[in-house]
Fold this sequence. Notes:
Elements: E1 3-4, E2 10-11, H1 12-23, E3 30-31, H2 33-40, H3 44-56, E4 60-63, E5 68-71, H4 73-85, H5 87-103, E6 106-113, E7 116-123, E8 138-140, H6 145-152, H7 156-164, H8 178-191, E9 194-197, E10 204-212, E11 218-227, H9 236-253, H10 258-265
Antiparallel strand pairs: 1-2, 3-5, 4-5, 6-7, 6-11, 7-8, 9-10, 10-11
Amino acid sequence: MSIVKGGPQILSSVRNALRILKSFSTFEPTKRVGELAESLGLAKSTVSRLLSTLASEGFVIKDEKTNAYRLGLSVLTLGGIITNDLEIHKEAAPVLYKLVNDTGETAHLAILDGLDTIYIHKEECNHPVRILTHLGRRNPSYCTSSGKVLLAFSEPKIVDMVVDGGLVRHMHNTITDPEVLQHELETIQKQGYAVSTEELTEGTRSVAAPIRDYTGHVVSAITVVGPIQRMTNHKIDRIAKKVMEAGNEASERLGYDERYFKRLRS
């Protein structure tokens, strides 16, 4: 058992086990020992031992036919504990449900994790044609409506870090110019909501608004997403109004008092 030198004491075996777990994704739900060893720069024997340990605790499951591993139910159990413990999740869940009924589109809660946006809760709409989204999946913050809302109300250094990391083009509407992004974030601050149209995924449009806690800080974003054929231009104003109302209601549930903060600013 080795300890990584420098800074706090970190067990390399534990860190490598966590790196293995984090390597699974929606697009790569299964992994083999050789694939993990190559991508993580570890010996196959090390990966094999770590996977065996993780499997014994239910964090991964081995397919005996293919020798590939996938995440186990222990991961889901821990994720459920975190989700249920998040106050924002508990308070905003009924608001999301109402927003789906008001707009007819799928609604999400999103947070900023590092420089990426992550969906932490989702309420599906009833339309047979839906936009495929995944809880826990990381998305670039600068090309989603929820991410742009969170950036707009973040500290400037966070936006600088996003820009320094590169504004990679994903679709024809992706913002790749830092000045254009900054102007967009200023607009979002003024109007109170963000719109994203085919910036990350083809054929999709989303609208997001901020959720504040009792201190007035933006801690999450509430968003609806759907195909542009349904979320047409003439519907955006009405949808944006509904999303902002939902964001305000969720904020109030978290203890935010808009009148109090308006008095402080006056």
